[in-house]
Amino acid sequence: MCILALILSPCNFPLVFMLQGIFVLIDIDFAFCNGFKI
After folding, report:
1. Domain boundary assignment for the chain
2. Cβ density class 5-22: b for 16+ within 10 Å, e for less
3. What does pTM read for this prediction?
4. Are the C-beta atoms of 38 and 31 separated by less than 8 Å?
């Protein structure tokens, strides 16, 4: 699960809290799954 990998990533962890919201998380998850590292 890409969203799980995103949440567990130390450098992206604060970003998850900073950008709260389902649509934002889905957008990040989509980019993350396609090899675009935030």
Report:
1. 2-34
2. ebeeeeebeeebeeeeee
3. 0.24
4. yes
- With contact defined as beta carbons under 8 Å apart, do 29 and 1 qualify? no
pLDDT at res. 7:
58
Neighbours of 32 (CB within 10 A): 18
Q: What are phi and psi of 20, to 5 degrees?
A: -75, 145
End-to-end CA distance of the chain: 16
What's the full length of the chain, in residues?
A: 38
